[in-house]
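Priority: low. Protein: Zinc finger Sec23/Sec24-type domain-containing protein. Input follows.
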Amino acid sequence: MELARLPKSLIDNMAQPPFQQPYYGGQPAYQQGPGNPMMPPTDPNDLGMENLQIVNQQPAARKRKKDRHAYHVVEAQGSSQAFNGIPQGGIPPSTYLNADPSSMPSPGGQFLNSPITPHMSQFPAPVNAPFNPANPTTSTEFAARNGSGDVFSANVQTSAQGRVDPDQIPSVPRSRDAIAQYYLKNVYPTFEHHLPPTATVPFVAYDQGNASPKFARLTMNNIPSTADALHSTGLPLGLLLQPLAPLQPGELEIPVLDFGETGPPRCHRCRAYINPFMVFRSGGNKFVCNMCNYANDVPAEYFCATTPQGARVDREQRPELMRGTVEFLVPKEYWSKEPVGLRWIFLIDVGQEALNKGFLEAFCEGILAALYGGDDSTEEDGSPKRTIPKGSKVGFVTFDKDIHFYNMNPALEQAQMLIMPDIEDPFVPLSDGLFVDPYEAKSNITSLLSQLPQIFSQIKNPEPALLPTINAALAALEKTGGKIVCSLSALPTWGPGRLFLRDDGKQHGGEQDKKLFTTEHPGWRKAADKMVATGVGIDLFLAAPGGGYLDIATIGKQMQTSMTNIQTNFYRSCCCCYWWRDILLPQLRLSAG
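Result:
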């Protein structure tokens, strides 16, 4: 369109070029002059009106403010300009999509080189206008611009299918091994460290007044302040106590304290025992309980002066004031029954599997080594060196389909066997001679254990009756309590409490495995409850020389849930009796010691 051919009346009413249009809230227009970058070009071919000699001779009438309008040019379809960034017909979208905003066409872009700011728009910007970036970038690109990609982003590599690479996942066993490696070189101080080592990590504890986690461990390292906070965690709050936990080499033995008939000092209100956290006041005449804050009078026989800091002068000579774990000898008023020496009874499987694979021979050799140790050294008085406490006694029972008791009286030339065929209602056929001192009856014990493999070599019953044998042993230990050490080499499928093959080896996983790990057999649960009532513990040595099924969930786990002192040792198939002996020996020494 050529402007020179337009009528004069139309030229007078034409709107100004886009770069000269007034806008709302804009800055004052630049004055045209040399050197002004905002001045339009002076080429006659451009849109300059003065070069075409089209001049309005009449002065323009001054109009009122309300007559001033903003004129808008509405382009027809197919225009070269975009509407709100959307390309019109005939223009490929790639011209505008993901393009640099500075290179996109804008009104007056052929004349203006400065970017357009929001106040230069002809429409007022909305108050809460959403921000839509023209070139959206990924989080990785954005972090790379600021140089903080490694801080806020995890570089976890993925495979071509979009799965996480397992090698990039943090390893729980590795972190657990790191803790184990730390405690191989460092001692755990019980008072200085807040977080105890995990239950699976072996460590050497240094008792500073708090009990070692080996003896007492909370299920939570931090106790919630309210019941609602505890309920929101969904975690159980409890205390696990193991007073007879084995010690690591290098740890101090637990001191045994005897306060006579009066017993150790205790709080008169809550009955808490004296411990390192009780505070002494009034020059040592009173001690304040750390459990209930009650001020107790110090017994006259326990009085000692205190330092200006409030500590007893004899504090370092009192283990109960320095150690978190001690043992008190119980006075008579706390006895439930007359204390006697510990009783051990060995239940020995003499079935077919135990004979064929050498398990019986190895178990007998392990018992002899555990009792006598193979050491010819003697005590100070010339007696043989004892591997078990003085006053302890041992008894022996063998079983297959029947139960065999042995009279080990030292007055006899050799042990006597008594067979109890009534396994439906087992009882103890001996009143004297079942439990003997292992050193007084050493000849009878050595002779019996060495001859057992030959005695049962021609019998070889394949089905042992385990539960009746355990019930008979409980009857023998009912009055005194004690320890059962039992061996088993085949599934007990004979007599009351017989077990069946529940795992055929064909189905694994899911609900089937869940059932195999649990059992509700009433006979075994009843035996476990009786162990708790009579104070009897049991160590099970289970071996499947033929790789057979033993139903350990019923034999071992069911008793373990009754909180008895139970240790289950399971050994896989092996045909070498010396291998059984070498494996059983250290475990039997722990059981008998």
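The mean pLDDT is 73. The radius of gyration is 46 Å.
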